Amino acid sequence: MPRILYLHGFNSSPKSAKAQAFRQWLEVTHPEIELLVPQLPPYPQEAAQLIESLAKESVDDKLGLIGSSLGGYLSIWLSQRFNLPAVVVNPAIRSFDLLQNFLGENENPYTHQKYRLEPHHMDELLALRIPVITSPELIWLLQQTGDEILDYRQAVSYLGACRQTVESDGNHAFVGFERFFPKIIQFLKII
Q1: For the stretch 39-73, what's the b/e string if a residue is b when 16 or more beta carbons lie within 10 angstroms of its beta carbon?
Q2: What pLDDT score does 61 carry?
Q3: pLDDT over 80 (residue 175)
Q4: Burial level of 191, CB count in 10 A (0-12/13-18/19+)?
Q5: Coil, helix or strand for 188?
Q6: Separation CA 116–CA 68 (nearest Å)
Q7: Are the C-beta atoms of 66 and 7 separated by less than 8 Å?
Q8: What does the pLDDT look like over 153-169, one tens digit per residue?
Q9: Which residues, 6+ apart, have CB-to-CB distance to 49 below 8 Å?
Q10: Rounded CA separation 3/36 (Å)
Q11: Which residues lie closer than 8 Å to 141 by C-beta, 6 or more apart?
Q12: Going by DSSP bridges, is the β-strand pair 114-117/104-107 parallel, antiparallel, or unpaired?
């Protein structure tokens, strides 16, 4: 069975607007595709172990990845590790720097889970960084320059050898994400 693993961003959940919109579209247009949207643990090493186990479970299935923000960062790691196609939406390329601002107590606004980020969690994020993208053909960057959370130039530069769609304006949520659904399915080559 073809599967898509959707990885949400930091402090998000499977209830994120992009994940829900994609799920609803898939149910109507491609009911043969199973969409996996796990609740990612707040700790990077635990999140990596979870998504790695899901990738290994899908070894006999066609699997594609979609990742948004921190989920985009994790998707790049998983893509290059397991040779999987990935569409990354406004990815948090330097998440290990960005999340320094969240050290200490946090609460996920979707799940209300309380957790504490410590400096070693930034080290865990850094350990997941792919220094050089060795299979750029596997990654498609969807980036909007109006991202109010991330510097879009980091993703454009880091993923310079990859397919890129960079739109002016927009925001971190990626305005008009649904316009890309059919092309995402084509790029992931799971059907």
Answers
A1: bbebbbeebbebbeebbeebeeebbbbbbbbbbbb
A2: 83
A3: yes
A4: exposed
A5: helix
A6: 22
A7: yes
A8: 999 999 999 999 999 99
A9: none
A10: 7
A11: 88, 91, 155, 156, 159, 162, 163, 164, 165, 166
A12: antiparallel
* Rounded distance between C-alpha atoms, residue 133 and residue 90, angstroms: 17
Q: What is the pLDDT of residue 171?
A: 97
| 29 in Cβ contact with 183 (< 8 Å) | no
Integer CA distances (angstroms), 93 to 73, 86, 136, 159, in order: 6, 14, 15, 9
Alpha carbons 133 and 156: distance in angstroms, whole number: 13
- In whole numbers, what is the pLDDT of the chain averaged over residues? 97
The Cα–Cα gap between 54 and 4 comes to 11
- Cα 189 to chain centroid distance, Å, stands at 18
**What would the mean pLDDT of 35-49 be, rounded to a whole number?**
98
**Helices vs. strands in the chain: H and E counts, helices first:** 7, 8
Whole-model pTM over 0.85: yes
pLDDT (average), residues 80-107: 97
pLDDT of residue 134: 96
